Input
Amino acid sequence: MRFDFITKPDAHFRELLQGASVAFVLKALAAGLTFGFNVLVGRTLGADGAGLYFLSLTVVTIATVFGRVGLDNAVLRHIATGAATSDWHSVQGVRRKALTLAFGASVVAGVATFLLAPWLSESLFSKPELTRPVRWMTLAVVPMVFVILQAEMLKGLKRIFASQLVHGVLVPGLALLGLYLLGTKYGVRGPIWAYTGAAVVSALVGLFFWWRSTPPFRIGGGHFPTRRLLDSSIPLFLVASTDLIMAWVGIFALGVWGTKADVGVFSMASRTALLISLVLIAVNTIAAPKFAALYGKSDMEALESTAVRSTWLMLAFASPVLILFLLIPGWVMGLFGPEFVVGAVPLMILALGQFVNVATGSVAYLLMMSGHERLVRNNVAAAAILNVILTVILVPIAGIVGAAIATAVSLAAKNLIAAYLVRSRLKVATLRIQMPQLAGRRNEPDEGNLEP
Output
């Protein structure tokens, strides 16, 4: 294999490397703060209390998906494209329309979750004590929707530092500080109040960062067709909805068939395994708008080169974390408290699934940023169905280990299929032994394959 992808980076990969370096540092800081918050939750509430907190967080996370209606990835794509062509009126129009639509949808989602909290707690989870935590947590729906949208908008403008600070660092950092100050006297309400307060402050900081952007972005008005925005957001909303099933079905199943302690242990294991894909998230932060811009310019050579180089870079960073989780998983889980050591095997299984996620590269963003949202939707839906089937079969039999197997297998399947779709539709192989030869390749996208 040739390693000049590091020693001799091209201009596009150099930009990605510089932006991803900033994002990675901030993501690492955010991961550390999130890990610290989770440790404090575990040691403050124990496995049972942590289970109640993560169940309420799961319910409200679903509400925020409905509140965003797929607008997060849609605004990233359209703002990145508008900024690349200096169409600032379009950029401002996307922002104004997206925030208006998201505010109405998130209010409806929050109120619906508040009203449904008793039914969810008593009928679905058979845990009446979950009603009050879920209702308190609904206060975070609107601010978290605004946090996520503002972060994606700033990302579209390549304001990587501001984007990661708003969503990645401030939310867990302020939540950790808030929980530390609140202590143990408020029980499960402590981390809920800390998380909600952090979301409110972060949303306000996001609005401030946008206003402080360079003058072209302060223009008033702006226009962007609502139909065009929804044409992108609705398929992506379905992607986010089904992707949410992938992320949370295990916790839901353990809430139904398991104990509060099972939920707490599995939640900690799955969140810890996400550290493997930390570098993927960091690279995607700058790669997504870069992919959109390169595809918009029909520069397929640079698109492939950037995708392949970034994949090898991510593998180099993710491998040591995987080895750590495979060698000493019990010690890692023991950091949350003695009750969590039983999550060692689930951590190993989930870590392998996340490693496949990294090894296939930024395949989902390559498809979404090139107009193949429906392919992503179909793939994620199929993987989510597989996840549900495996979860229903395995969780009653094997508990948290079964949930981990179902999650890891479906995650790996989703990414391997996405890698195949990128290869067949964009003619890009994200993982290959040699860097792509840039000479002699055509510069046109496959126009006939823009839709499935």
Observations:
- Residues 1-8, 433-452 have pLDDT under 50 and may be disordered.
- Residues 113 and 138 are 7 Å apart (CA to CA).
- The chain has one domain: 4-434.
